[in-house]
Amino acid sequence: MDDTALEAQIDRWRDYVRRHRAVAPDDVDEMTDHLRERIDDLRGAGLDDEEAFLVAVKRLGRLDAVSREFAREHSERLWKQLVLMPDDGTTGARTPWRDLGVLLALAVGAGTAVKIAAAGLDEETFVRNAVFLVLPFLAAYFVWKRRPPLHPVAVVTGSAAVACALVNLYPFAPGGSTALLAAAHAPVVLWALVGVVYAGGRWRSPDRRMDFVRFTGELAIYFVLLALGGGVLLGLTAGLLSLVDVDLEPVLEGWILPFCVPGAFLVAAWLVEAKQEVVENIAPVLTRVFTPLTTVMLAVSFVVLATAGGLTTVDRELLILLDAVLVLVLALLLYSISARDPMARPGLFDGLQLILVVAALAVDALALTAMLTRIAEFGASPNKVAALGLNLLLLVHLVRTGWLLLGFCRRRRGFAALEGWQTSYLPVYAVWAACVVVAFGPLFGFA
């Protein structure tokens, strides 16, 4: 076995261990380092590469036993228990309660920032800055939790400050297209910066990028669940108070929403970090339910576009909705890939995903044709150019994904190639969003 084959064996072992949700990414790195050290020692003792690998893995313990050991030592990472305190009575180590305490303090800080900004800014300026009022507190939580090196933290902080300055100092026309585009693309830039901190500064690691993709999907699920539950609770409370002629609306708008919305977002992030197995059980069900439904929706969208008459007459709002659908498809695809067992053989669901990608490509091709036709007929505008750029990025992403997925379904490619393409291409969206925020204002006269 040469070094390449040995590294492939180690990578397969690492992927298997990483799929055990009781093992955190940092722990997988540490376990891999121990495995490499044992292999080097055994090779030095005269064993060949294959023998050294097998013996080293055996000495680390059976993988199931390793997972159970991590489950005992890091019970806060398990979903089946809400919060467990350490049994040894130590107080110096981090505990779920301490994590939650720090998170709640940051949530209060985010709510306070939103409350102050809402009181002092006009509506347009507040919407433009909303992302800068909440995401820095989430990034601060990951800085506290991950302890990344100072350099990436400084880069993230500086980049966020520059983005905030540009969004607020550019002389945008009130209600202009470039102002709306900057406000819409700034969250993408900020979320990518949060991802750098989430990865502990190891953003170049494909594993860490895929972990962040998985975290993003699970965060969305939990935030929606919290929002729905909170909405029902507030509705019942408002109904009860109305019976005694108490109007909850002023308190709701002035205090509850400014604190509860960002608070729920940060608490959802803490839940994803602390409790993983429940979402892991839900995720495959959600992806299997929504993949065929989304495919049907894309087919209907394709028919609507194809029968809408001349492409120049296609309604702009319809094209915007189609872009939103394509982004949703991409998010569903990424989350499905992140939640899939990379060692499993291709099956029926992989074929359904391939059909989903083909349907998305058909819709994207029609949307691109409509956009190019409108630009040729009526000229370029900030909105048209931004939409065209996004659709071109989606086209490249989906074409390559479809090709790799086809090869995987035909068992001519491994799943690692498909997964690697997603993690390597994702930063392109952040770069494009940064270009929109930085360049579109000056290019289009801040109109």
TrEMBL record:
The chain crosses the membrane at residues 100-120, 126-144, 153-173, 179-199, 219-243, 255-273, 285-306, 318-339, 351-373, 385-406, 426-446. InterPro entries: Perm_prefix_1 (IPR047928). The keyword Transmembrane applies. The keyword Iron does not apply. Signal peptide: none annotated. Keywords: Membrane, Transmembrane, Transmembrane helix. This is DUF4153 domain-containing protein.
